[in-house]
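Example 3.2
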Amino acid sequence: MDREVGQVVKVGEREMEILIQAPAGCEACSARGVCHAGNETAGFRIITLPRINGVKPGQQVVLTFRQSSSLIAAMIVFVVPIVFALAGFLIATNLFPSSELYGAIGLIGGLFLSGIFIYFLNQNLSRSSFFLPRVEVNRHSPESHNESRGDNGLPPIHPN
């Protein structure tokens, strides 16, 4: 399980926003313009999660992410389009064996269908808590933190 220390920046009636440090690789990643992690500035990102009782702005929290949810998400995003594209290609080339053009059209159609499939899958999975991290209030007082390092060896978060 991956753990990250964050700071609650906003608490609403149903949701809360937590500021966490973006992974070091986010700034160098070519997909950061598409990924929600790359849209934040100054090395931080904000995660919106369902509110838990007793949390106040400024409190530190520990987010625990399941590794299995990361693997499943990667499979959905990277493997499903390949499977759909391959299936579209194979179906098209079997239906129309005389032309390679139909194979290419089947491949593109498979990619298009995978996008639709992933969209509806995302709509259903967004109602589930499986991909959400577990949030625990950091019970250590700020006085107990080392000045240069935060809990679990992570640097402390100081939003601008």
